[in-house]
């Protein structure tokens, strides 16, 4: 009707959903995909990567297509998992854990990208062993992480972040010292593997064991010590 005032519709700004996957993580995935494309073009289809050496003979071989598919699929799966995790966390919990989960995802994606580049170099006959270099780099990172965790002091935003609380100061210290020692042992083990150069197969298995085993160990230790 003339003179009547209808309902006023306003457009409110949508609040973006939280996510642990950043543009930098997408960039690392894009670089890995580009390396994969170059490798497919430059490395012959029937090429076999020597994954382990027994003396002067390769006794563990990786087919080209299978080996090159692992890194991008692993990165995509991790990014999807972290994206879902970011959606499940509350804004408060996300704010308290982002400074740990973000670099953790970056580190794993970077290790996968370095391994992919190492496969490319190996496939084109280069003498530059980037997977060994990645082993030394990850070993140094884990040794530094071990020192930081072992000497960490308890406060709201520092140390390990778990879905469940660690109520006592004694348990918190034990969790961090055990995790710090484990990180140092893993770093020393990776450094030894990279120095011995048994082939990329054992090194990459060492990467996986360290990056998966350390968070799993920390979680199990926090559960075991919750009553202290």
Description:
The chain is mainly alpha-helical and 228 residues long. It folds into two domains: 20-42 and 61-128, no CATH class; 131-228, no CATH class. The protein is 67% helix and 6% strand. It has helices at 23-42, 64-88, 91-123, 130-150, 169-196, 200-224, and strands spanning 48-54, 57-63. It has a two-stranded antiparallel ribbon with strand order 1-2. A hairpin with a 2-residue loop joins strand 1 (48-54) and strand 2. Helix 2 runs antiparallel to helix 3 (91-123) and helix 3 runs antiparallel to helix 4 (130-150). The longest helix has 33 residues, at 91-123. The protein is globular, with a radius of gyration of 23 Å. The N and C termini lie far apart (73 Å). The model is unreliable at 1-14 (pLDDT under 50).
């Amino acid at each position: 009707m003339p003179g009547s005032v209808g309902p006023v519709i306003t457009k409110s700004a949508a609040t973006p959903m939280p996510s642990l996957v950043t543009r930098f993580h997408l960039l690392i995935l894009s670089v890995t995909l580009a390396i994969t494309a170059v490798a497919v073009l430059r490395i012959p289809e029937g090429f076999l990567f020597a994954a382990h050496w027994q003396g002067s003979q390769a006794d563990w071989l990786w087919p080209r297509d299978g080996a090159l598919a692992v890194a991008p699929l692993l990165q995509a799966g991790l990014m999807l998992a972290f994206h879902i995790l970011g959606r499940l966390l509350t804004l408060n919990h996300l704010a308290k854990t982002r400074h740990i989960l973000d670099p953790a995802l970056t580190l794993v994606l970077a290790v996968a990208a370095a391994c992919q580049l190492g496969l490319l170099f190996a496939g084109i006959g280069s003498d530059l062993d980037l997977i060994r270099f990645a082993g030394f780099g990850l070993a140094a990172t884990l040794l530094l992480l071990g020192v930081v965790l072992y000497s960490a002091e308890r406060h709201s935003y520092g140390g390990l972040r778990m879905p469940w609380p660690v109520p006592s100061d004694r348990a918190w210290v034990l969790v961090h010292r055990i995790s710090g020692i484990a990180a140092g042992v893993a770093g020393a083990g990776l450094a030894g593997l990279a120095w011995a150069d048994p082939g990329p197969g054992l090194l990459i298995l060492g990467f996986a064991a360290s990056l998966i085993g350390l968070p799993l160990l920390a979680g199990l230790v926090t559960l075991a010590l919750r009553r202290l």
